[in-house]
């Protein structure tokens, strides 16, 4: 106990001697200070408080109105700046984004780098659609696209397990045979041994009379007149259909092809190389068929019940394969990304439901309908190259519209154009002339290569 008292007294005397020997300069250098202890400081240079008992980050020499540099050990060397206003309130200068904005050079550098990255990303992912030569931006790689198609195909087979017809079923054999002809047409359309340029460049010996081309228009006009008379009777003699509402021109295709030829662009077809094509038939009453990325074709028996002829089935399958040729699924994914970003920006200024409605009506749906027409064009060429009469295609789309119970509003508020409009476009478009020429070549046993 006596040792403890002597030790305490010794420590107290040592501290007094240390305090009395400490000399504080009149104009010392500023000491570090932290924001947490900024309010604890002394304005008196001759303070009687022992130095070791003061807060560790106290700065007793702070001068009002002068900017000091402060480094806090708790911030691992981060620099902070503050100043004192006339009300003796200490303000820290902003840092982070605000500090960056204060430097125009840094702002310009950041904007320039971001702009360069965006341009590089955009230009590096531009592709050209076969036949139409339309240039578009596709962010999804073909490898990832095929993997997604494989994954979705496995889900479909698991979903319809027990309803997939065996390979030796008559309907499976029929669909397999039609699909193989179309797949061979795809390969033929990609070959460059004989580049497809113009229907007038074909040998004249295989050309048929001119009325052969007009037969499709005559058949479609007769069907249209017949349907118009039926609509008049159903509506009390009032014709609700107008020609200008039914016919779409293909000027955008012709202009796109012209620009592609002038620029010398090459169609993107690498995603069609080395595909493992697979075809299944699902025993379901749904009137549908589709082709997943990677060459996975799915056909439902409901479609086979309504379309009995092979050429009719080939028309629909060719259309779905046309989507795969044009990589529409990957393009749709890229478009959705940009549209989502645009919607997020517009939502800041408009009501969310207004933004969603307007973007769907004026951006998503028109783009989807254009892709459908593009798949119709490519599918028509594949249909003819496979040896099927392309004049059947307009009748198939017209029939498909009747089965689905479509109306004229289908052309404005749906993802697909109406069957009537698709029939009118294909029958009057220049692509029908090309398809008929390819069909005549296929019938003669030769075939046209490189038409995609």
SSE map:
Blueprint: H1 2-21, E1 68-71, E2 79-84, E3 90-92, H2 97-101, H3 104-124, E4 126-128, E5 135-137, H4 142-159, H5 170-190, H6 211-234, H7 243-246, H8 251-263, E6 278-282, E7 289-292, E8 296-300, H9 301-306, H10 310-326, H11 328-346, H12 352-385, H13 392-404, H14 410-413, H15 419-428, H16 430-443
Parallel strand pairs: 6-8
Antiparallel strand pairs: 1-2, 2-3, 4-5, 7-8
Helix pairs in contact: 5-10, 10-12, 11-12, 12-16, 13-15
Short description:
The chain is mainly α and 452 residues long. It is built from 16 helices and eight strands.
- The spatial strand order of the largest sheet comes to 1-2-3
Indicate the multimeric state: single chain
SSE topology string: HEEEHHEEHHHHHEEEHHHHHHHH
Summing up helix and strand content along with how strands pair, one would put the structural category as: mainly alpha
What percentage of residues falls in helices of 4 or more residues? Answer: 40-55%
Contiguous low-pLDDT stretches (5 residues minimum) are 33-47, 51-78, 194-213, 230-248
Number of helices: 16
Termini gap: 104 Å
Integer-rounded radius of gyration: 38 Å
What's the β-strand tally?
Answer: 8
- Would you tell me the overall average pLDDT? 76
General shape: elongated
Q: Describe the biggest sheet?
A: 3 strands, antiparallel
- Proportion of residues in β-strands: 5-15%
Keywords: Hydrolase, Membrane, Metal-binding, Metalloprotease, Protease, Transmembrane, Transmembrane helix, Zinc
Protein name: Peptidase M48 domain-containing protein
Pfam families: Peptidase_M48
Organism: Castilleja foliolosa
């Amino acid at each position: 106990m006596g040792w403890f008292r002597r030790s305490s007294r010794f420590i107290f005397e040592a501290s007094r001697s240390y305090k009395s020997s400490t000399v504080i300069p009149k104009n010392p250098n500023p000491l570090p200070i932290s924001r947490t202890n900024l309010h604890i400081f002394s304005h008196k240079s001759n303070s009687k408080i022992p130095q070791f008992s003061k807060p560790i980050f106290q700065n007793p020499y702070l001068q009002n109105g002068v900017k000091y540099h402060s480094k806090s050990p708790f911030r691992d060397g981060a620099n902070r700046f503050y100043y004192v206003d006339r009300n003796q309130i200490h303000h820290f200068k902003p840092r982070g984004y605000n500090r960056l904005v204060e430097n125009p050079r840094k702002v310009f550098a950041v904007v320039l780098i971001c702009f360069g990255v965006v341009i590089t990303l955009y230009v590096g992912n531009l592709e050209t659609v076969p036949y139409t030569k339309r240039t578009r931006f596709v962010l999804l790689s073909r490898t990832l696209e095929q993997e997604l198609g494989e994954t979705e195909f496995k889900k479909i087979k698991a979903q319809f397990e027990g309803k997939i017809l065996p390979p030796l079923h008559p309907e499976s054999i029929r669909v397999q045979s039609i699909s193989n002809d179309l797949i061979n047409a795809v390969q033929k359309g990609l070959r460059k041994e004989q580049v497809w340029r113009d229907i007038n460049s074909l040998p004249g010996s295989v050309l048929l009379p001119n009325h052969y081309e007009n037969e499709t228009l005559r058949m479609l006009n007769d069907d249209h007149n017949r349907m118009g008379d039926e609509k008049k009777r159903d509506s009390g003699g009032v014709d609700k259909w107008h020609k200008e509402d039914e016919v779409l021109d293909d000027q955008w295709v012709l202009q796109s092809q012209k620009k592609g030829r002038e620029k010398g662009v090459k169609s993107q077809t690498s995603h069609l190389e080395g595909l493992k094509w697979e075809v299944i038939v699902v025993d379901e009453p749904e009137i549908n068929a589709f082709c997943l990325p990677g060459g996975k074709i799915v056909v439902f028996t409901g479609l086979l019940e309504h379309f009995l002829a092979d050429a009719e089935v080939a028309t629909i399958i060719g259309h779905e394969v046309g989507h795969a040729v044009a990589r529409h699924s990957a393009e749709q994914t890229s478009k959705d990304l940009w549209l989502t970003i645009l919607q997020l920006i517009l939502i800041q200024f408009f009501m969310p439901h207004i933004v969603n409605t307007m973007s769907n009506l004026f951006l998503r749906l028109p783009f989807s309908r254009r892709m459908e027409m593009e798949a119709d064009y490519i599918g028509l060429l594949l249909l003819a190259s496979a040896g099927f009469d392309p004049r059947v295609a307009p009748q198939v789309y017209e029939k498909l519209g009747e089965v689905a119970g479509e109306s004229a509003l289908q052309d404005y508020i749906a993802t697909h154009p109406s069957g009537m409009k698709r029939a009118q476009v294909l029958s009057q478009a220049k692509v029908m002339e090309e398809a008929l020429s390819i069909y005549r070549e296929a019938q003669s046993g030769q075939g046209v290569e490189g038409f995609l």
